[in-house]
Design goal:
The radius of gyration is 17 Å and the shape is globular. The protein contains 1 helix and 8 strands, in the order E-E-E-E-E-E-H-E-E. With 134 residues, it is mainly beta. Helices cover 4% and strands 26% of the residues. The protein has one domain (6-131).
Amino acid sequence: MVDVVRVMIFDLHTGALTSDFVGLAPSDASTALLSVLATSIVVTPAHPRFTYTVKAFDLLGTASEAFTTTAGFNAFTHAVSNALFATVPPGSSFLVPSSVDPVELTLTPAKGLMVVTQDNKNGPAEAQLIKLTP
């Protein structure tokens, strides 16, 4: 049997359930990339912000996980810079430039940066959380 992570979009207003992509979830990893099309969640330059949460469950068992809160995001003007991908050779380092937009941060607060390295050991060591401080 092959495990497939499917990204589903549940519209709280209409009850519609749709899907754009399968999730990217490498084996022996604890991080999944969950992508959706902006048009599927009605995100446009005129309406760039959305609120989301995540719930995961296993169709063949009883395992599940869910965020207990929601988060907000501006798809066009990020409160904290993001989405830098880099291949770093073993034993090397890489400086990641980052920036904060203070105006957008008040509109869509962010907790900080998450640096994910899928080659790291599964579990908490797979990601480094860097908190923003005022």
